[in-house]
Amino acid sequence: MNRAEKSQAVEELNSTFQDAAVVVVTRNLGLTVAASTDLRSQMRDAGASYKVAKNRLARIALDGTDYAPLSDLLTGPTALATSTDPVAAAKVAIDFAKTNDKLEIVGGAMGSTLLDADGIKALASMPSLDELRGTLIGLIQAPATKIARVVKEPSAKLARVFHAYGEKEAA
User: Fold this and answer.
1) Are residues 116 and 152 in the same domain?
2) Pair (121, 134) in one structural domain
3) What is each CA distance from 1 to 13, 15, 19, 57, in whole angstroms?
4) Which of 80-84, 116-120, 143-147, 162-166 has the lowest mean pLDDT?
5) What is the pLDDT of residues 6-52, one digit of tens each?
6) Are residues 100 and 139 in the same domain?
7) Do 117 and 37 have their domain in common?
8) In sequence order, which residues have a C-beta less than 8 Å from that of residue 157 and are 6 or more positions away?
9) What is the separation, in whole angstroms, between the first and last Cα of the chain?
């Protein structure tokens, strides 16, 4: 890499860190190309990204962002998973690490909060932003459904009572 390519890589990483809600640092311990490609596609499907970057360039890109404390975790063969959804990158990384022992979760950060590997696992166990939105919409719609049922129920009971009297009279 020449100097211009390095400065461009630093700018891209810096803009990624500015936009990210969570950054997960992983260590690759001999991950094959096929496994790495599979992990990248899983990240893309979840709305996250997975990037292998030189540690020195990543440290420079981290300066001036909320994720600056992550620079201590960047040792050895590392890669960075980022997403705007606070849970997506962590969830995919943890699920992939369960099936592939060559990927190790080192830690990460959510905003200025530094997380260790256990913190990333706890973050991955939380529902995603889309799941939370679905739950919230369900909770908002539930009272309306219950009100409609309550309003409709007395007339249904009344109709059943009239029907029962009608059958009694007919018998």
Assistant:
1) no
2) no
3) 15, 20, 25, 11
4) 143-147
5) 899 999 999 989 888 899 999 988 889 999 999 999 999 999 999 99
6) no
7) yes
8) none
9) 96
pTM of the model: 0.73
E-state strands within 9-155: 22-28, 48-51, 78-83, 103-110, 113-116
Dihedral angle of Cα 54, 57, 58, 64, to the nearest 10 degrees: 180
- 116 and 158 inside one domain: no
User: What is the predicted pLDDT for the residue at 96?
Assistant: 94
d(CA 150, CA 29): 60
pLDDT, residue 64, reads 83
pLDDT score of 12 = 92
- On whether both 90 and 107 belong to a single domain, the answer is yes
48-51 sheet: strands from edge to edge: 48-51, 78-83, 22-28, 103-110, 113-116
Cα separation, 124 vs 134, whole angstroms: 18
Query: Do 79 and 151 reside in the same domain of the chain?
Result: no
- Find the domain containing 142 and state its range: 128-171
Q: Both 150 and 119 in a single domain? A: no
List of residues 6+ apart from 96 with CB closer than 8 A = 38, 39, 42, 103
